[in-house]
Amino acid sequence: MARLVVVSNRLADPRKAAAGGLAVALGEALNQSGGLWFGWSGEVVEDAARAPDDGLQVQPAGRVTLATVDLTKSDHDAYYLGYSNRVLWPVFHYRLDLADFDAGFLSGYRRVNKMFARHLMELLRPDDIVWIHDYHLIPLADELRALGSRHRIGFFLHIPLPPPLVLAALPGHEWLIRALFAYDVVGFQSQADVSHFERFVMNEAGAEKLASDRFRCYDRSVVARAFPIGIDVDEFQRLGQMREAREMYETMREQYSRRELLVGIDRLDYSKGLPQRLRAFRNLLQDYPDTRDRATLIQIASPTREDVRAYTTIRRELEGLCGHINGNYGEIDWMPVRYINRTLPRRKLPGLCRASRVALVTPLRDGMNLVAKEYVAAQDPADPGVLVLSRFAGAAEQMREALLVNPYDTQGTARAIHQALKMPLEERQRRHAALLAGIRAQDVHWWRRSFLAALGDEVSAPSEESYEPAEEAR
């Protein structure tokens, strides 16, 4: 059996439940093959503290080997804070206005991917299968090929791929797309992302379409397919039976026994549409008087990337909106919005989801959004809540039974929230049953098996095609 090698910007010990469903799912495959998980350690050292080839740490985690490297401060600032999070993240989420096209960021991004490739090549065996994850590492296969790798290599993009005209605004976009042809399989979250890839390579790069999901360009062919990521439904439901989740559920039901509870659980990120969501909730209170002194929104906004200016701005905006709504509509014994700028422990999430009549998952753009699926998994089938979901989340392609909304249309979103609050039990049960069946059929284990099957069974070996590394990336 070939060994699986997983590469991601950060990694987790798959033996620990706190690592989450994705780490557990990858851990299953890694354990089966005695696999290797490679990535950044999370440590940042001063530039003078280590030589360029120092810093590889290898340790066992059961049958899995964890291999990590530190980043120097200059590499971290350019590769991670810079190109990954100030260029690729905003552009891939359609926010060109927030991108910072500093040339030094791109050189740092290339430099770190070269360094990762050099360390990884030291650890690879000839028959390894390599699975690389997310936007931090798009050119990694190209760097591995330049060092002589002939392994089967797959890539999965966890965030959206923008349409061609948005992608074309990215300086150096040609070499970035060309680098994707160093892979054997490229996976996307949604069919819309595959469509954007196809349109770009066909119209901008002159690719040839060999099959419904195979494209040839730059003397290489690649399979590009949607593999929508899921959750571990059983694991999340088991979590809901644990003490912390039950206590959270009981506390919420007791404290809000006279209220209709709505919940939003997000990272504090401009892609999540949090200001638009709060304005929609304000419109709900304004346009539907029956919701006043009744509907309460608990909005969890976990801190993230706090050293990027855009996140400071959105935090101030959210605090101002919450104060405005509570000041205008609140009563002595009722505050419409409870805004929490902290991370809620994962073990409590199922209880909060189960206690909430409505979940608001309304990003402006999202690769998938697993909170939508976790909310469905946490519900009581006999009396389930209602999911209000942005049509611009990748999850909307699968979860058509949710109430789909345009988050930019705050009045339309308010109407959908009111519909959710008034929805009859029979309709709620019907919608929930269909949603639950869908997320069970395409759970995180299906996602892993489907991708690895494509990489292992449907792809020609790299040795059958010549490969010329992208000149711009050299």
Task: Give the arrangement of secondary structure elements.
Elements lengths: L3 E7 L10 H13 L2 E10 L10 E6 L2 E9 H20 L10 H21 L5 E5 L6 H7 L5 E5 L7 H4 L5 H8 L4 E4 L2 H13 L4 E4 L2 E4 L2 E7 L6 H8 L2 H13 L4 E8 L6 H14 L7 E8 L6 H21 L7 E4 L8 H7 L2 E4 L8 H9 L7 E5 L12 E3 L4 H13 L2 H17 L2 H14 L17
Parallel strand pairs: 1-2, 1-5, 2-4, 5-6, 6-7, 7-10, 11-12, 11-14, 12-13, 14-15, 15-16
Antiparallel strand pairs: 3-4, 8-9, 9-10
Helix pairs in contact: 2-3, 3-4, 8-13, 9-12, 10-11, 10-14, 12-13
What does this structure look like?
- This protein is an alpha/beta fold and 474 residues long.
- The chain folds into 2 domains: 4-230 and 445-459, Rossmann fold (3-Layer(aba) Sandwich), CATH 3.40.50; 233-441, Rossmann fold, CATH 3.40.50.
- The chain has 16 helices and 16 strands.
- It has helices spanning 21-33, 73-92, 103-123, 140-146, 164-167, 173-180, 191-203, 233-240, 243-255, 274-287, 309-329, 349-355, 370-378, 410-422, 425-441, 444-457; strands spanning 4-10, 36-45, 56-61, 64-72, 129-133, 152-156, 185-188, 208-211, 214-217, 220-226, 260-267, 295-302, 337-340, 358-361, 386-390, 403-405.
- Helix 10 (274-287) crosses helix 14.
- The protein is globular, with a radius of gyration of 23 Å.
- Residues 458-464 have low confidence and may be disordered.
